[in-house]
Amino acid sequence: MRRVLTAATAALTLTTAGTMLTGGPGQAAPTAWGRPTVTLAPQPGAPGLGDSYFPDYGNGGYDVSHYDVRLRYDPATDRLSGTTTILATATEDLSRFNLDFLLDVESVRVNGWAASSSTAGAHELVVTPARTVTRGQQLTIVVRYDGIPSETLVGDYTGWTRTDDGALAVNEPESAWWWFPSNDHPLDKATFDVSVSVPTGVEVISNGVQPRPPLAEAGNRTRWSWRTTSPTATYLAFMAIGQYDIVTDTTPSGQPVVNAYSTSLGALGPAARASIERTAEIVDWESGIFGPYPFEAQGGVAGPVDGISFALETQTRPVYGPGFWRRGANTYVVVHENAHQWFGDSVSVADWRNIWLNEGFASYAEWLWSEEQGEGTAQEVFDFTYASYPADSGFWQVLPGDPGADRVFDDAVYDRGAMTLHQLRLAVGDDAFFEILPAWTAEHRYGNGTIEQFQALAERISGLDLDELFTTWLFTAGRPDVASAARKAASPPAEPKSWAKIREAHRLLEH
Ligand SMILES: [Zn+2]
């Protein structure tokens, strides 16, 4: 996936944080015994969750458990309106709190009482409830809104993609701001109900399962409903709206499958189907390596020709741009996006700095698939990848373990990221390596993780000190020396059969 936002957002971020964090200190009051005690007045919730790359993403002071997103959308005008009901628990005494959101807000209610709201910074909606919120209190926040997401810009950017026949709400990390108010950081996951009314004849696909079939509404409209019952990071919730052929099935393990293919794909359609229809097989193979599949449904969405150019691991159902099918079927991108269901979706970054935990692992899954398919061993793909970046290439200057906010989706995070995992595998041996992967997904299931926690787990299971390996491969600029590559320097490695497909997939995924 790729990020297109510019540094302008970061500048706004600091201003917002600086303004919003200036809450008054507690007031000292005398007690009956004459000793002062501190009575803390309710404070404003923080406008961010302290992410080291995106400090104003997400908000402090509450924890969301569920989003009920009920919308109405018209492809002809790109007008999106509706109501999101947020169920949350206050984690502090709050005088006010923020949501991340961009569309025009008509009203906000907190526990039934009308609340006032205003905007701040690049994407903050500041909500001041009529009554002070106390720590531990259950909050029902109802936001009514209306807007044209394709014309709602941060700088010159929108994360919403309007197409000829509808729209895609698919992006990373900025996606939610254009369609539902949220606590927009992977640290605060929640379950989702998404329902959208569209003109009859238009399809809507989202995460999870359909709790009820599409329902006819007045005015020749149809309401589509989707539900995901697993904790979901806000950027992994999605909508695809337009003209789609929907294919439903059940896996041998009993999971519902929903695949959808844009009718605009034309001659690309068969290659898309020959790739995405293998999702259940690929997920089953990945389950044998990464541990039990964490979610309640599977599938994939082949987006329209005028939609996104990348693919994203939207939870239970990745969305793919059309470019992956131009050279025929490509199962490598299906392997990549579904590997993210474990690495990224179930176990999410605790801070965006840890993006290697997503992209390095999803990329290495492709190398394992190459090995499985007899199209080149992981060692052969490693050797070829290593040799394809000369020592003086700028590629080696980007640190996969800390690439910087502007390089979250750099080649190095993917390719050097996968190389790092291969070096770990060589260092600890296959037995330990294939014990570490499912242990990681089990220990952090539905939660978050950091690179430091992964290193600690790998050291615990292998019994080795891996500090030098992690420091060299993730945190040190320059091309690391590798014995096998030096040995082969005289005769450059042959191109693995899988290379063209992996290269094609990464050319579109990386940025
Ligand atoms: Zn990825």
Summarize the amount of helix as a percent range. Answer: 25-40%
Strand content: 25-35%
Give the biggest sheet. 11 strands, mixed
Cofactors, ions and other ligands in the entry = zinc ion
Task: Kindly state the number of beta strands.
Answer: 24
User: What is the CA-atom radius of gyration, in angstroms?
Assistant: 24 Å
- Structural class by helix and strand composition: alpha+beta
Mean pLDDT comes to 92
Spans where pLDDT lies below 50 across 5 or more residues: 6-34
**Gross morphology:** globular
Number of helices: 12
Compute the separation of the termini in Å. 8 Å
Strand order of the largest sheet: 3-6-9-8-7-10-5-4-13-16-15
Characterise this structure.
- A hairpin with a 5-residue loop joins strand 1 (27-30) and strand 2 (36-39).
- This protein is an alpha+beta fold and 511 residues long.
- Helix 4 crosses helix 5 (356-372), helix 5 packs across helix 7 and helix 7 crosses helix 8 (430-443).
- The strands form 5 sheets. It has an 11-stranded mixed beta sheet with strand order 3-6-9-8-7-10-5-4-13-16-15, with no helix packed on it.
- The N and C termini lie close together (8 Å).
- It has 12 helices and 24 strands.
- The protein is globular.
- The protein has helices at 7-20, 269-276, 279-290, 331-339, 356-372, 378-388, 411-428, 430-443, 451-462, 467-475, 483-487, 499-509; strands spanning 27-30, 36-39, 43-44, 62-74, 79-90, 94-100, 104-110, 113-120, 124-128, 138-147, 160-163, 166-169, 190-199, 203-205, 215-217, 221-232, 239-242, 244-250, 256-262, 298-302, 311-312, 319-320, 348-349, 448-449.
- Bound molecules: zinc ion.
- Zinc ion is lined by residues 1, 336, 340, 359, 362, 509.
- The site of zinc ion has 6 residues, from helix 5.
